[in-house]
């Protein structure tokens, strides 16, 4: 994450020529070409960057194991700088706090499809959750939002209750992200939040507002704390359809790491098809490869 001592005082500005563009000899705004990031180009890109946004799973770790070299990179890159972790749960709480809080008689509740961590984040933001223990059913507040996150206990009953609340046209439908699935250590997959959100959307006939990547809303959450020039930020991720698309939408230089979901061949396929928002500017085998650019 960027450190305050390295950040400009101005608000995010339109994308200008960045170090990444100069490194590849092309103006910013040119199509990304998925070039390997190494050598002089790597040192130039990192040297000009205000800060780096890292995705987590598939980039810093896989499951419960750190990606080799990731802890050392963070220690080297982050020495003396401010680091902050942002999540779709934090962004969802911010959005719902903005939309739902008001006079006591106007406050509503959030019906959550998600785990304890997501629920705790909402409570910490001062939001009321539908069905909280100890709540008097007769005095329960009106549900004003349905939030879909990762829910290992997703069920037909929960889907039905969500749809019942969403019959109210003023009830918001929010999703933390659009990831369709997540890889497991044995090579299999488990459904992601995107799959659950799609079920709610199909059953309710509503379209969810997504707060996590690739929505620019997450970058809005970040710039609430840091004043940054997006053209001097790097977005490092492992998913083309979320991380890399997010970086492009926010005007950042994008780097794909091959330790997670997306493969280099997929990026090259998007490049050949002209789907440039899904093509990273650069790729590395692992974020450990970035260490070379930090060496004296």
Automatic annotation (TrEMBL):
Name the cofactor(s) required for activity, per the record: Mg(2+)
Keywords on record: Hydrolase, Magnesium, Metal-binding
Domain of life, source organism: Eukaryota
Question: What is the free-text note on the cofactor?
Answer: Divalent metal ions. Mg(2+) is the most effective.
Keyword Metal-binding in record = yes
The record's family statement is: Belongs to the HAD-like hydrolase superfamily.
Instruction: State the protein's name.
Output: Pyridoxal phosphate phosphatase
């Amino acid at each position: 994450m960027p450190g305050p001592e390295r950040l400009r005082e101005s608000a995010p500005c339109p994308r200008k020529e960045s170090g990444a563009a100069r490194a590849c000899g092309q103006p910013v705004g040119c199509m990304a070409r998925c070039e390997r990031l190494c050598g002089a180009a790597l040192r130039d890109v990192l040297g000009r960057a205000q800060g780096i946004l890292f995705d987590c799973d598939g980039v810093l770790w896989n499951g419960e194991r750190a990606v080799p070299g990731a802890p050392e990179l963070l220690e080297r890159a982050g020495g003396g700088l401010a680091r902050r972790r942002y999540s779709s749960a934090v962004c969802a709480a911010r959005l719902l706090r903005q939309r739902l809080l008001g006079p006591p008689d106007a406050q509503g509740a959030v019906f959550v499809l998600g785990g304890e961590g997501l629920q705790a984040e909402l409570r910490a933001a001062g939001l009321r959750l539908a069905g909280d223990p100890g709540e008097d059913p007769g005095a329960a507040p009106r549900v004003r939002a349905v939030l879909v996150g990762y829910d290992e206990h997703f069920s037909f009953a929960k889907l039905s209750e969500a749809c019942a609340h969403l019959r109210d046209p003023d009830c918001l439908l929010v999703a933390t992200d659009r990831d369709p699935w997540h890889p497991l250590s044995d090579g299999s997959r488990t459904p992601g939040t995107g799959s659950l959100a799609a079920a709610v959307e199909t059953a309710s006939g509503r379209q969810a507002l997504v707060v996590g990547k690739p929505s620019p809303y997450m970058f809005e959450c970040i710039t609430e704390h840091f004043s940054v020039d997006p053209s001097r930020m790097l977005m490092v991720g492992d998913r083309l359809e979320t991380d890399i698309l997010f970086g492009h939408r926010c005007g950042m230089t994008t780097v794909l790491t091959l330790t997670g979901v997306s493969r280099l061949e997929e990026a090259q396929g998007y490049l050949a098809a002209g789907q440039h928002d899904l093509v990273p500017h650069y790729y590395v085998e692992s974020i450990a490869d970035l260490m070379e650019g930090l060496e004296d």
